[in-house]
Amino acid sequence: MTRTVVVTGLGLVTPAGVGVEDNWSRVLAARPTAAVQPELAGLPVDFACVVPDLDGATRPGTRRGDRLDRFQVLASVAAHEAVEDAKLDPASWDDHRVAVVVGTGAGGVATLAAQSAVLGERGPAAVSPFTMTMSMPNMAAGQLAIEFGARGPSLGVSTACASGATAVGLARDLIRSGAADIVIAGGAEAAVTPLHVSVFARMRALSRRGVEPSLASRPFDVDRDGFVMAEGAGMLVLEDERHARARGARVRAHLTGYGASTDAHHVSTPDPTGGGVERAMRAALADAGVTPADIGYVNAHGTSTPLNDVIEGEAIARVLGAGAVVSSTKGVTGHTLGAAGAIEAGYTVLAVERDRLPPNANLHRPDPRLDLDLPTVARDSAVRAAMSNSIGFGGQNATLVVTAP
């Protein structure tokens, strides 16, 4: 018997706020978060989107802050919100049936950069013994498993900027296969560092609109010139529907479809035909058993780069038809890299649950090549099914389909 997978909990920690409600309010209001960051002073790009007012070391469930990289802290804060939202008690669940899957593109890069500087300045005896466990990409999942006592499968996933969506899709498959009843799944990233910003600037991937940073992330706008670096985490609690119903849980949405593909084209440039992301979308639709006409909203990858937005937008129009309703929430949050797919899956769940579609922030002149409905203000619309796309370096694509209960 095929197991139906539902979403019973959400946790969001992004530049739009710490917590689901703060996130949702700011995304619906289309208020961008990009601002000049002191730690980036003197770099070619000195602005980014960062999580506000986060004191992870004092939050329940997070272990000692000096032994966790920031990406692990972000994951922990989001995961605790999601588990609390699902009204789960780790003290009473069947811990062998609880799994954790967390995606990240970079892992603990801030720790590596800091400890590399310590090594050069003070020598090997000064290097932290926790460097390895703070920097390894799998350790967000490992730390969460320890915090929650989850003894099912624990997986770290890295498919670049598709990592969060891939993690959610694989978590769905764990439940479908019978390997788990509950999965804490999502993505986390904290790569707003001078090194990473310098590298992306050298690649000419970042917006240079430094005079007005709040206007820099502008997906689908004809004047877009690159993405804005960001950090954050998004976590979902997924459950077998029978398990959730048996305990009287609120079902926020169904996670119905997952599709993945690879461009096999270039390490950083998307396939100009859009064939890879198109295959992921079609696979997710088939997996969900829905038609293109059923999709009432698409949360696009929409990075605000000249190449991605038109390639993805044209692929969406081919799959769903002209006039598909599409927005990219990166106009508000910036690009959270490996966390983006999970954060945006959370926004997609909220759109379906609350019949409210997020707008495109900073969209003043839509690219004329795109035959899409690109709202610039939040829109009330009953949505039975929605789609979320993620695209990563290496040509790795992931699409999720969320449906109403």
TrEMBL record:
Alphabetic keyword roster: Transferase
GO biological process: fatty acid biosynthetic process
Keyword Transferase included in the entry's annotation: yes
GO MF annotations, alphabetized: 3-oxoacyl-[acyl-carrier-protein] synthase activity
Pfam families xref list: ketoacyl-synt, Ketoacyl-synt_C
Domain Ketosynthase family 3 (KS3) intervals: 2-404
InterPro entries in alphabetical order: Beta-ketoacyl_synthase, Ketoacyl_synth_AS, Ketoacyl_synth_C, Ketoacyl_synth_N, PKS_Beta-ketoAc_synthase_dom, Thiolase-like
Family: Belongs to the thiolase-like superfamily. Beta-ketoacyl-ACP synthases family.
UniProt name for this protein: 3-oxoacyl-[acyl-carrier-protein] synthase II
Species of the source: Actinophytocola oryzae
